[in-house]
């Protein structure tokens, strides 16, 4: 039997594509974050499977149909493939936050589903997101959580610090997170964690003005 492998989980909005206040409701509103396509191409070269895990309550709220959401994801995957990257599968939660489902982040349901379907070792996996809920989903399964300060990340840093202390890392964007993941796979500490620890020991308050 083939042993379990780690994986890379990416949040969508704010990591792969730009966040919108009114949500992404069509392909015309989908805009890749600068550098995201190249970053996913480089992550693909690590050999680890890549999954997108995204909360999409816009479905339950009636702002978008499942057909439209699937169309957006198919087009997104096509663009990623054309840029040399590969995403194994997109997982999405269509539920609203009051439904208390097991798949909406901060719950780890989507990660657990991927682990069952692809025989993954979540403790050797990474999740990159721009919200504390992404990090929480990773912490729940002992995956390495990386908060990017693009998207909503700047406004979620303090929440992550208060909830998880040094049990997460912070990156400027997906490109920075890729560098950290590659270093971790080489057996080196993720640089941003070290910088966070150094700032803490120097007496700097971890707020959104901290440059990482």
List the helices and strands and how they pair.
Layout (H helix, E strand, L loop, with lengths): L7 E3 L25 H9 L5 E6 L10 H17 L6 E5 L15 H10 L7 E4 L2 H9 L3 E5 L4 H12 L4 E3 L2 H12 L5 H11 L11
General description of the model:
This protein is of the alpha/beta class and 212 residues long. It has one domain: Rossmann fold (3-Layer(aba) Sandwich). It has 7 helices and 6 strands, in the order E-H-E-H-E-H-E-H-E-H-E-H-H. The protein has a 6-stranded parallel beta sheet with strand order 3-2-1-4-5-6, with helices on both faces. Helix 4 runs parallel beside helix 5. The C terminus is likely disordered.
Write a concise keyword list for the protein shown above.
212 residues, alpha/beta, 7 helices, disordered C terminus
Structural class: alpha/beta
Briefly note the CATH topology name. Answer: Rossmann fold
Tell me, briefly, the overall form. Answer: globular
Q: Helix fraction?
A: 25-40%
Q: Per CATH, which architecture?
A: 3-Layer(aba) Sandwich
Number of helices: 7
How would you characterize the largest beta sheet? Answer: 6 strands, parallel
How far do the termini sit from each other?
42 Å
Brief digest:
The protein is an alpha/beta fold. It has seven helices and six strands; from the N terminus they run E-H-E-H-E-H-E-H-E-H-E-H-H.
